[in-house]
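Look at one such:
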Amino acid sequence: MYNTQKLKLLRKEKGLTIYDMAKQLAITPSFYSQIETKKRRLFYDTAVRICTVINVRPDQVFYSNTKSS
């Protein structure tokens, strides 16, 4: 599972909105929002593209050693 709080924090640290992310990922803002809230399944290719947009390693977002994320 990925850490939604960390994903949101990293996006905001880069000064990006949900709309910015969606545009760069070529998806709808609603779709991206659902990824951030775990209402939509996140596929590998989208995860890699998200990391590219926010310029981080995948393990910084998609690996969590806590069960609450």
Notes: The domain at 4-62 is CATH 1.10.260.40 (434 Repressor (Amino-terminal Domain)). The chain has a mean pLDDT of 88.
